[in-house]
């Protein structure tokens, strides 16, 4: 069997007078080393992409994190300069991509902004600047130029017993606790009707979720398992489970 191919979402960014559609290398490398799969970056060209033409040729989809926020108009919110930056081309690509991947039963791993996209794509809403909400901790990255510090494990999460994440991690019957990094200022507010919360931070922030009706394996994390996939057991297990789900689906299609 050949290695699974993972479609990876792209941010749209200016550079050298051009517009680039790019994904950070940490996500691409984690697909290779953690899932034993081949990453393929999908440009954020919205309706210009025939999603089925691509999705019938790949084995998994990964929605990456990004500093930009999902545009509030997509979940009934109000856009503002403070809430930005936005990436409307990415939104126009990733929201339909997530919905279609789930319809086709293609394994989906959604990370940070990716989890927020999945929630909005399925009808949920987001809370913004959660660090200023009563009782909530600051989930933003440490102020540092050193990536290992920004992506350092920052707080614990409680894993829901019997959840998709609990199965991936093989946690204790009561769900268990693990430590995660944290680089976000938005979070799930109203969880989409089809999503189930798999883990929460101590302040109630939903840290992982999965779609109940998904035909295939799907998991969303508000943290970044890609960054420590070489050394952190929780991160390793998530990428390994993603790879296993893709290979199982490939075998079924043989
Ligand atoms: N913008 C959203 C999404 C958070 C997210 O995906 N963060 C990744 C940051 C990557 C980096 O800064 O290195 C939010 O803030 O909630």
UniProtKB/TrEMBL annotation:
Short name of any one Pfam family annotated for the protein: Peptidase_C26
Keywords per UniProt: Glutamine amidotransferase, Transferase
EC number(s) on file: 3.5.1.94
Pathway entry: Amine and polyamine degradation; putrescine degradation; 4-aminobutanoate from putrescine: step 4/4
Sample GO molecular function, one term: gamma-glutamyl-gamma-aminobutyrate hydrolase activity
InterPro entries named in the record: Class_I_gatase-like, Peptidase_C26, PuuD-like
GO term, biological process aspect, one: polyamine catabolic process
Catalysed reactions listed for this entry: 4-(gamma-L-glutamylamino)butanoate + H2O = 4-aminobutanoate + L-glutamate
Enzyme class of the recorded protein, top EC level: hydrolase
Transferase keyword on record: yes
Keyword Transmembrane helix in annotation: no
CC annotations in GO: cytosol
Domain of life: Bacteria
Task performed by this protein: Involved in the breakdown of putrescine via hydrolysis of the gamma-glutamyl linkage of gamma-glutamyl-gamma-aminobutyrate.
Family, similarity comment: Belongs to the peptidase C26 family.
Protein name, UniProt field: gamma-glutamyl-gamma-aminobutyrate hydrolase
Species in which this protein is naturally found: Breoghania corrubedonensis
Taxonomic placement: Bacteria, Pseudomonadati, Pseudomonadota, Alphaproteobacteria, Hyphomicrobiales
